[in-house]
C-alpha cells in the first residue's frame, strides 16, 4: 500500500493518472471550422473547468495513437497547462482549450471576437452534456484571461 501526502508527490501521482485518460476532442462549430481541446473526463465530476493558456494559445495537441497517450507539444510548462492534472485530481472534468494557428495569429482581437465566444460556448455545451448539473468554470492565464472573460460575456 502506498501513502501519498500532499505536495510534489501527489502532483506527480495525479499527473500520471491524468495523462492516461485525457484525449483530444475535435468539435465542428461552423460549416468550415472545428475546434480542438484536450479533455479529461472525471466520473461524478463536481464541476467542469475550461482552461485557457496564455501567449498565443497554440498547444499543438497530438491525439493518442498506437498506444501512445495524447499530449501537448507546446506549452507543457505553461502554468495553466501544467496544472490541469491538479484540477482533475480535485474531481473536476477538464477541457484544455487550443487556439487554432489562424486564430492565434490574429492575437488579442480574436480572443474578444463573437466567433471565439461561440467556440467557447461549444466547449461549455460539450461539458454540460457529459456532466449534467455540474457548474462550468472558465480559467485563463495571462492572455487566456481574455478568452475566459469573453466566454462569460
Low-confidence stretches: 1-20
Characterize the main sheet.
Answer: 5 strands, mixed
The helix/strand order is HEEEEEHHEHHHEH
What's the number of extended β-strand segments? 7
| Large-scale geometry | globular
Helix proportion: 25-40%
Number of helices: 7
Class of secondary structure makeup:
alpha/beta
N-to-C CA distance: 48 Å
Question: What assembly state would you assign to the polypeptide chains in this entry?
Answer: single chain
> DSSP strand (E) fraction?
15-25%
Strand order of the largest sheet: 1-2-6-3-7
Residue-averaged pLDDT, rounded? 75
Radius of gyration: 15 Å
Would you mind describing this structure in some detail?
This protein has 153 residues and is α/β, with parallel strands linked by helices. Helix content is 39%, strand content 25%. The chain contains seven helices and seven strands, in the order αβββββααβαααβα. A five-stranded mixed beta sheet has the order 1-2-6-3-7. Strands 4-5 form a two-stranded antiparallel sheet. A hairpin with an 8-residue loop joins strand 4 (61-62) and strand 5.
Question: What is this structure, in a nutshell?
Answer:
The chain has 153 residues and is α/β, with parallel strands linked by helices. The protein has helices at 8-21, 79-82, 84-89, 101-106, 108-111, 114-130, 144-152, and strands spanning 23-30, 33-40, 47-52, 61-62, 71-72, 92-98, 136-140. The chain is globular and about 35 Å long.
Amino acid at each position: 500500500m502506498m501513502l501519498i501526502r500532499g505536495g510534489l508527490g501527489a502532483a506527480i501521482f495525479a499527473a500520471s493518472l491524468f495523462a492516461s485518460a485525457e484525449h483530444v476532442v475535435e468539435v465542428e462549430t461552423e460549416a468550415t471550422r472545428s475546434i480542438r481541446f484536450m479533455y479529461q473526463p472525471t466520473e461524478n465530476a463536481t464541476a467542469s473547468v475550461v482552461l485557457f493558456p496564455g501567449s498565443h494559445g497554440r498547444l499543438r495537441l497530438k491525439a493518442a495513437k498506437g498506444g501512445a497517450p495524447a499530449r501537448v507539444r507546446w506549452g507543457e510548462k505553461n502554468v495553466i497547462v501544467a496544472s490541469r492534472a491538479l484540477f482533475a485530481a480535485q474531481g473536476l472534468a477538464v477541457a484544455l482549450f487550443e487556439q487554432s494557428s489562424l486564430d492565434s495569429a490574429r492575437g488579442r482581437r480574436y480572443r474578444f471576437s463573437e466567433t471565439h465566444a461561440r467556440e467557447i460556448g461549444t466547449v461549455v455545451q460539450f461539458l454540460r452534456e457529459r456532466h449534467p448539473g455540474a457548474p462550468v468554470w472558465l480559467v485563463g492565464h495571462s492572455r487566456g484571461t481574455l478568452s475566459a472573460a469573453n466566454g462569460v460575456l
